[in-house]
Write a sequence for this structure.
């Protein structure tokens, strides 16, 4: 199970934020006054008095006290941090090493890092440039701009606005995502028809993060402008801002290769190859800290040099529909409330680089961090989350907000209503990777004192969670200010989310027939039965040989017995194959879409054959046991094996572990 969890973390490559800012101190958006509460709670925020001055001297002293120890403790090779204010860079500084072997230090001016999904902000800026030029309509069917067709969902097309708010409805797709093989890079014209994922949700209804959709937006920019995407970004974003140490190209141009930082698992490991982000507009950027500062300053000042102020305002201030009062998507940027300030930004992760960019428009300030290592035990997540939170607490005045508190009896009732298992809207639903959704369901529970309990969120906070219901079906964590909310209609939970992921991801009630609460234990039990059955076959044969006895089955019962045992071994071999596949792309997610294709095809043939074969032969054996009036132990053994087979068939067909479609 631990390896599966590690795999799931790997599969979040290029994810903007699902985990990247879970540690931010969330200050809720101001809410309209309601009925006078019986009790109140105060959300945390740094008071307006006693703040440090936001100047270069203090920021450098603060970062010098924070970063070196944090990197060493987490075993991160190097990082770059940028702080901007107004129309200038307050501080840009490198920490640690860009190359461990040669002990080459990180230079904020020239060292290139991979900011992952922060690349999307450049793609969205390019889209808005074409909106200004009248070549893209945010609310028009995007098929009008394409040379291939995206099928409608229930007769409804998708629009660029939906793509920019991650509500196009695409399921997760990871096959063409990231690789260490330069040959994996494909032109957008070739990639997009090849990798088209299924649409799972009606357009405009459900935030579900999509790298594919962002690549689609980049291709539309390419088509309507008549300029290849890489050239377009260089001509219309890099050049106007003077970003001379940046590129979306893969591999890097020769002039930039000497400046590229290595990427490391930890500071104790060797550098890994340059990563190829296949949906390039979604995450292929390589950039220096100094260049990222120029992009941040532009957007803090109405996207000066890139967009008209009114276009930038439309981009920054838009708030897509979401769950209750939770954070939502702007156009491309996602919203977060930190220490009482509305921030807009993006996070980004490749295999080895981990980054966050956050702008505070009301304070005309911003901070960016990028690290070139995974570090130990997800350390980059905690480090960058704490850095941005502490930045806001140290330099940006915050006002604690007093909120209503729902009475204990009602909050207990509401918590019990939403208790259960949930699946992420960002996931695979119609291909074999959907099995990972079974392993990764989020559990919501209720404590003995009637409070909400979400263990998967608890482990992502530096302080214990204390969820208090501050409005109907809206909970606030007293220690961080982060909010958790649910949409409830006719007494049933429709969806829920939490502030840090709500802009682009919802949690949906797991269907009863595929709920991990019963199905996962049932699956493990069935595999245990199959394992014991398979192992008992040769063991019993050896025992009979030792005592020179014969198998007490004849005719059809002997045949059914042997076939059922053979299929049991087939099931185990298939499970081993799936484990090998998981291990292969856990080690290198780029293994998907090439070296493992043959194994995937084989497993999707063996899975239904062995599961159906086991079920059929176990059923036959059970029928013969009753027909021949066999001992109760024989009947019980056959019945248990039949039950195991039925569960396996349910899993195989329910989670699409069959077929030949290679879009996943």
């Amino acid at each position: 199970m631990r390896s599966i969890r590690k795999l799931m973390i790997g599969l979040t490559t290029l994810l903007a934020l699902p985990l990247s800012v879970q540690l931010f101190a969330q200050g809720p958006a101001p809410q309209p006054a309601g009925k006078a509460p019986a009790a109140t709670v105060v959300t945390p925020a740094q008071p307006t008095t006693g703040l440090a001055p936001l100047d270069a001297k203090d920021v450098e002293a603060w970062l010098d006290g924070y970063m070196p120890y944090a990197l060493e403790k987490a075993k991160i090779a190097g990082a770059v941090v940028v702080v901007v204010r107004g129309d200038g860079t307050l501080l840009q500084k490198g920490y640690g090493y860009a190359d461990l072997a040669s002990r080459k230090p990180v230079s904020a001016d020239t060292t290139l890092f991979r900011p992952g999904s922060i690349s999307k902000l450049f793609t969205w800026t390019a889209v808005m440039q074409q909106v200004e030029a009248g070549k893209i309509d945010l609310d028009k069917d995007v098929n009008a701009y394409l040379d291939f067709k995206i099928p409608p969902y229930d007769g409804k097309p998708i629009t660029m606005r939906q793509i920019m708010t991650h509500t196009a409805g695409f399921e997760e797709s990871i096959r063409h995502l990231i690789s260490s093989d330069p040959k994996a890079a494909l032109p957008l014209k070739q990639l997009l028809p090849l990798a088209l994922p299924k649409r799972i949700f009606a357009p405009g209804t459900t935030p579900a993060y999509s790298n594919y959709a962002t690549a689609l937006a980049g291709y539309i920019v390419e088509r309507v402008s008549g300029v290849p995407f890489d050239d377009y970004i260089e001509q219309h974003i890099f050049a106007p801002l003077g970003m001379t140490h940046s590129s979306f190209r893969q591999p890097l141009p020769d002039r930039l290769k000497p400046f590229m930082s290595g990427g490391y698992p930890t500071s104790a490991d060797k550098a890994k190859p340059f990563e190829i982000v296949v949906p390039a507009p979604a995450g292929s950027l390589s950039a220096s800290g100094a260049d990222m500062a120029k992009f941040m300053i532009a957007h803090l000042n109405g996207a000066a040099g890139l967009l008209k102020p009114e276009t930038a305002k439309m981009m920054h201030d838009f708030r897509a529909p979401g769950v209750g009062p939770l954070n939502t998507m702007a156009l491309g940027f996602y919203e977060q409330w930190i220490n009482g300030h509305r921030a807009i930004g993006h996070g980004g992760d490749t295999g080895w680089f981990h980054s966050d960019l956050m702008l505070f428009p009301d304070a005309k300030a911003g901070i960016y961090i990028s690290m070139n290592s995974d570090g130990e035990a997800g350390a980059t997540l905690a480090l960058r989350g704490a850095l941005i939170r502490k930045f806001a607490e140290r330099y940006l005045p915050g006002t604690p907000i007093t909120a209503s508190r729902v009475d204990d009896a009602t909050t207990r009732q509401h918590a019990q209503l939403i208790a259960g298992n949930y699946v992420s809207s960002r996931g695979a639903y119609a291909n074999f990777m959907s099995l990972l959704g079974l392993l990764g369901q989020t559990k919501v529970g209720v404590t003995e004192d009637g409070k909400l309990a979400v263990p998967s969120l608890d482990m992502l906070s530096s302080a214990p969670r204390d969820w208090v219901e501050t409005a109907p079906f809206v909970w606030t964590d007293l220690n961080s200010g982060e909010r958790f909310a649910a949409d409830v209609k006719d007494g049933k939970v429709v969806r829920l989310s939490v502030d840090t992921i709500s802009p682009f991801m919802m949690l949906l009630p797991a269907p009863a027939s595929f709920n991990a609460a019963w199905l996962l234990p049932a699956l493990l039990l069935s595999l245990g039965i199959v394992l014991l059955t398979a192992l008992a076959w040769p063991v019993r044969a050896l025992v009979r040989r030792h005592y020179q006895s014969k198998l007490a089955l004849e005719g059809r019962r002997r045949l059914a017995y042997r076939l059922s045992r053979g299929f049991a071994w087939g099931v185990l071999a298939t499970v081993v194959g799936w484990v090998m596949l998981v291990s292969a792309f856990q080690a290198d997610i780029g293994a998907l879409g090439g070296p493992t294709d043959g194994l995937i095809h084989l497993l999707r043939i063996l899975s239904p054959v062995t599961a159906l074969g086991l079920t059929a032969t176990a059923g036959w054996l059970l029928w013969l046991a009753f027909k021949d009036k066999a001992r109760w132990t024989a009947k019980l053994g056959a019945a248990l094996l039949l039950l195991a087979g039925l569960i396996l068939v349910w899993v195989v067909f329910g989670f699409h572990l069959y077929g030949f479609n290679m879009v996943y």
